[in-house]
């Protein structure tokens, strides 16, 4: 699958800038999230490097035969019903697995949004896992994993630092009007 993924990325015009995260458990931030294609491109990217990333998917998608493919592509079932705590469920997955590279988008939607969600921060702190910054830049079509991002105890300050990082890189979404690094 690694060679097929690399071939498909090249066929689609994407360049790769990154590595498989060395720690067995981490959160990889994916920004900007403006299109459903972001998942496909990031899946091909990490697979082409020889990695296996996971994403949180509502449990309703795990029915036969769709569930088989969702799991194969790294889907981790999450109960989003009333009263369910997604953060606790994600932390549980980190605590009970030997390997988990969880890809998350702090925007939480493909629509333009100023206020990024801090769930990734809470999960990383509770599960004691590092966070790496990643990007899918639709301008030059470069997908990257950057450096490890050191978290503080101030989630909002960390999100501001992340936004500054992405602004400085000039990252563009597939639909640029749906991505902002404003506070």
List the helices and strands and how they pair.
Blueprint: H1 2-11, E1 15-17, E2 25-31, H2 37-48, E3 53-58, H3 66-72, E4 75-78, H4 86-96, E5 100-104, H5 119-127, E6 131-137, E7 142-149, H6 155-169
Parallel strand pairs: 1-7, 2-5, 2-6, 3-4, 3-5
Antiparallel strand pairs: 6-7
How would you describe this structure to a colleague?
By secondary structure, the chain is of the alpha/beta class. It has one domain. 35% of the residues lie in helices and 22% in strands. The chain is built from six helices and seven strands. Strands 1-7-6-2-5-3-4 form a seven-stranded mixed β-sheet, sandwiched between helices. α1 packs across α2 and α4 runs parallel beside α5.
Could you give the distance between the termini? 40 Å
| Number of helical elements | 6
Shape: globular
What kind of sheet is the major sheet?
7 strands, mixed
What is the helix/strand order? HEEHEHEHEHEEH
Mean pLDDT score, rounded? 94
Report the helical percentage.
25-40%
What are the defining features of this structure?
183 residues, 7-stranded mixed sheet
Summarize the structure.
This protein has 183 residues and is α/β, with parallel strands linked by helices. It is built from 6 helices and 7 strands; from the N terminus they run αββαβαβαβαββα. The protein has a 7-stranded mixed beta sheet, sandwiched between helices.
């Amino acid at each position: 699958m690694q060679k097929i993924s690399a071939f498909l990325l090249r066929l689609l015009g994407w360049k790769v800038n990154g590595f498989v995260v060395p720690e067995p458990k981490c959160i990889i931030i994916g920004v900007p999230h403006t299109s459903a294609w972001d998942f496909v491109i990031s899946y091909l990217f990490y697979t082409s490097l020889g990695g296996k990333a996971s994403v949180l998917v509502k449990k309703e998608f795990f029915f036969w035969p769709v569930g088989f493919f969702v799991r194969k592509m790294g889907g981790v079932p999450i109960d989003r019903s009333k009263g369910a705590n997604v953060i606790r469920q994600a932390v549980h997955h980190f605590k009970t697995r030997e390997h988990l590279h969880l890809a998350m988008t702090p925007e939480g939607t493909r629509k333009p949004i100023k206020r990024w969600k801090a769930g990734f921060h809470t999960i990383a702190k509770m599960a004691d896992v590092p966070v790496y910054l990643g990007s899918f830049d639709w301008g030059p079509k470069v997908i990257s994993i950057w450096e490890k991002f050191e978290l503080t105890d101030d989630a909002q300050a960390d999100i501001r630092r992340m936004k500054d990082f992405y602004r400085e890189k000039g990252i563009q979404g597939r639909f640029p009007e749906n991505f902002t690094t404003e506070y």
